[in-house]
Amino acid sequence: MEQRRLLADSFTYLHPQKHTTLVHKATREYWFLHDTAVAWHGESLYVAYYHCRQSEMIGHTLIHERVSHDGGVSFGPETILSAPGDESGLHVPPMLFEIDGELYAYVTRMTGPDICTDIRVMKRAGEIWQEIGILDDPMIVNGTPQKLDEFTLLAPGRVADRPGEKPERAAILKIDANDPAKTELIPMPLPDGEKHPRCPESTLFHLGDRWVLLVRNDAGPFWMYESMDGLHYTGPFEVDLPMEASKPFGGNLTDGGSYLVYNAPNPPERRSKLVLLLANPGEKEFTQKAILFWSDDRVAHRRNWHYPCVAEHDGKLYVSLTAGFKEEEGRDAILLTVDLK
Questions:
Q1: Contact 275, 264 (CB under 8 A)
Q2: Domains and CATH numbers, the chain
Q3: What would the pLDDT profile of 240-277 be if each residue is shown by its tens digit?
C-alpha cells in the first residue's frame, strides 16, 4: 500500500502552558468510563462521557455530562444527556457540536458491544436535551463535525456494511448545516482483496489543499484517505507516523490551521504518551509538535491518557480525555487546557 506522510521531517517542538481539571472520577456504580466529548456553547464548556456498570459496553450504559461556566476550572453537577430505557440498552459515544448558536449531540444506540442500531440527534433546549430526529445509519460518529461550506458539515466515523454487524468501514457523515437530522453517508472505498482496518475509528481535518481522513488500524500502520473537495476520497494509504492502537482526534482551527492529538508508542505502558501536532494555514504537513502527557516508566501507578476530543476557544485547546491508573481502579474523565498563544 502506498504511504503518505503527515509530520514534516523538520518540525518545531512546542512547550505550551497546560492545566488539568478532573471532570468526573470513576465510581463503584459506573466503574468503566470512556469516550468523552467536549464543546463550547456560548460562554459555557460542556463535557460528556459514557460509562458502564460492569466493563466496556457491558451492563447498563448511559451518557452523563457536566458544564463549566469558568472555562473549565470547575464543573457543575452531573446530569444525564441520554440513557436507555432498560438495563440492556447501550447509549455510547456522544459527539457534541454547535451550529448557529445551538448545541447538538449525536448519540449512537447499540444492542450489544459495537452492534449499532441508529443515532439519536439531540438538541439542547435550556437545561435539557430533546431528541429532534433519528439517523438510521448503523454508525459511530468519532469526531466533531467540520465545516465544508456554509451549507454542509462533515463528521468522521465508522459504519457497518449491514445492520446488525460491527462498524468496520471508515466513513464520513455529510450533514445539512441547517438541519443536523438530515445527513448522507459517504463510506470509504476498500480495494479488492483488502481487509478492513481493525477498529477503524477515524478523524477528519484539512491539511494544505486536501482533506485527510485518518483511520485507526490495530493490525498495522494507520490508514488515511485524501480528498480535494471533502466528498470524494482516494485511498487508502498507509501513514508513516508511528501511532499506538488508540483513537486519534484531529480538526481545523479558526485561523485555518490544523491539529492532531494521538497516542504515540511508549512501551511498555500502553497509551501513556499523548502528542499534539499543529500545522499553520496552508501547510501540507504538520510542522509543530508538543508532548501533552508522558508517563515515567519508573512510576508504580502509571497513568494513561487516551480517547481525546478537542474544542478550540479563544486561543486555547480544550482536550477532554479518558484517564486512569491501573484498570481495576476504574477510569476518570479529565480536561486538559492547552494555551496556544
A1: yes
A2: 3-339 (2.120.10.10)
A3: 999 999 999 999 999 999 999 999 998 888 898 999 99
